[in-house]
Design brief:
Length: about 90
């Protein structure tokens, strides 16, 4: 007897987690226009959608970190909510 669809899906997802569990699954809903822009960016740079999303997030993170003080960077990495940083000033 073959594998059930749920077992096939579980194995597929497990294979795509990356070596040593180095990746996580991300599921989001975005506007159609946003999805098309993401596809265009990926195509323009010759990347996959996954690589494009990673690059955009990492570039934005670096941009934000460059504008933060050392204390703010520490808070950023400790996931301090923005409202706590603003109220502390």
């Amino acid at each position: 007897m073959g594998l059930s669809n749920s077992e096939k899906q579980r194995r597929y997802r497990q294979r795509h987690l990356g070596p040593g569990g180095g990746a996580e699954r991300l599921s989001v809903f975005v506007r159609i226009s946003t999805k098309r822009n993401l596809e265009r960016l990926a195509s323009h740079y010759g990347n996959t959608i996954t690589n494009t999303v990673e690059n955009l997030i990492n570039e934005k993170t670096v941009s934000i970190l460059n504008g933060l003080s050392e204390t703010e960077q520490h808070e950023f990495y400790n996931e301090e909510p923005v409202h706590k940083r603003q109220n502390a000033k």
